[in-house]
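Follow-up to my post from last week.
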Amino acid sequence: MTELWYDLEPFLQQGTLGLVNGAFYALLSLGLAVIFGMLNVINFAHGAQFMLGAVVAWMLLSYAGIGYWGALILSPLLVGLLGVAIERTMISRLYKLDHLYGLLLTFGLALIIEGVVRNQYGVSGLPYGVPDAFRMPPVDLGYMLMPAYRFWIVVVSIMVCLGTWYAIEKTKIGSYLRAAVERPQLVQAFGVNVPLMMTATYGAGVALAAFAGVLAAPIYSVHPAMGANFIIIVFAVVVIGGMGSIMGSVVAGYMLGVVEGFVRVWWPEASATVVFVIMAIVLLLRPAGLFGRK
Amino acid sequence: MPQSQRIALVVMVALIAIGPFLFFPVFLMKVLCFALYASAFNLLLGYVGLLSFGHAAYFGMGSYLSAHAAKVWGFTPELAIATGGLTGMALGAVFGFLAIRRQGIYFAMITLALAQMVYFFCVQAPFTGGEDGIQAVPRGHLFGVLDLRSDFTLYWVVAAIFLACFLFLYRIVHSPFGQVLKAIRDNEPRATSLGYRTDSYKLIAFVLSTTISGIAGGTKAIVFQIATLTDVNWPMSGEAVLMTLVGGIGTMFGPALGATVIVTMQNELAEFGAWVMVIQGAIFVACVLAFRRGMIGELQAKLRKPL
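User reply:
Got it. Predicted complex:
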């Protein structure tokens, strides 16, 4: 029994740490799914907006002395407002066109955002310390000690994901949103301001990305390419989960983070590619995705 | 070939012929490699309506394998470049088989993700040389006879490769097979109901496109004597999209013109570092918002003749 435990322990540990990555996959794919559901646009700039969230947190600290907790609210707000401006001035012109144009536009925006940050701060990382509140002994999970900040990431991301799910599935505004996804013209005829809802949805999705960025700032170094690295993996997560359901994208996010953790024990070199391999297998067996509807 | 395209072809050949007497051959060879790459990409986006966001994988792996073949296996340049093409073909067959199972936006995400997998593989695989890439690739002797160390000599070889592949692409697009591709682009359910196995058509078009991308990457490796991670990373996929978008999606000559414009811009702005990225992003945004037909596309609409 003890021997089996020794074999299993590293898997449990890495799987739990994998939940941290999974938390970011879940938050980002949730934002992508919400935006795609409402606007029918794949937001390629999601990674850049995630990175921008982290950079704005760093800027708030360095230039204005606003710490982590302030940044956790202010940075998503600011980046979300930028998202609102982007939707109003650009994305809203593309709704009548092929979806591919939305992808190309947001790809261009991602290049602009990443390029500007690169010019301003270079390619090396900007340091952002773990907030003081988490300078405490690691959390004892019985089989491992988990740094308090990482524990917090997992807890808060689960809370945010559940909150978003609740807001969309169980509240009145959420029901308008779902109705507008199914029949925009009809909902508009009932007197609901659908274009406003679309703007707000994009802003909220972008704010979610920035929120994830602030969460990530203390554990990943804040640098211009951090978003691009993440977003492509998140695309694979989205293909695996299927964008049909909010819950599907969230669950797929955590699941893949954990699987990545397992693979890190068993074959470390493959941990960077395992998500893509799983995507290929899912495409062979269930082309519509694990939770997707055909 | 309609008259408008015949004129355009003559102009293009003439420009290629006088080019090396006016500009640096190495710069022109870069333009030709990217023109070929973008034209191959356009076969999918322009004529089948499939947006592949992962063409860097075929370009980059073609580049790596050509470099490896020329340097380690001692292949002659034409065989090394053919190795690049075969690499693109093999990789495209596997990835295409997976990707065509989904349409539209998912197709773009799948091809991007698969290409990123190739990138991670190249970062770790020993034969690619990691961050250093494969350097000092010998240009060698064409067919074992013609010494290619001179840029001027190599230029004519690259020009011949470009023209041969370009005419091959033209032939594909204007063949009965190409007609079916366009039918799939315009209305896939209808093409299916006419009895065409659209998946096979898409896969064949995909493999043709990736093969030529591999040839373009391999040629680039021989010209610059280097294959690096840049060739296989996602911004390279974006470049194919950008060049095609600027030149005109679904036009024969657009991607080549777009490649010329973008490569020239990159060369002129090289000293401004990361601003190139910002400018490319801005061109993307501007093209999508206001210039969706691209340069050749606009010209085509004005002349009302295919180009």
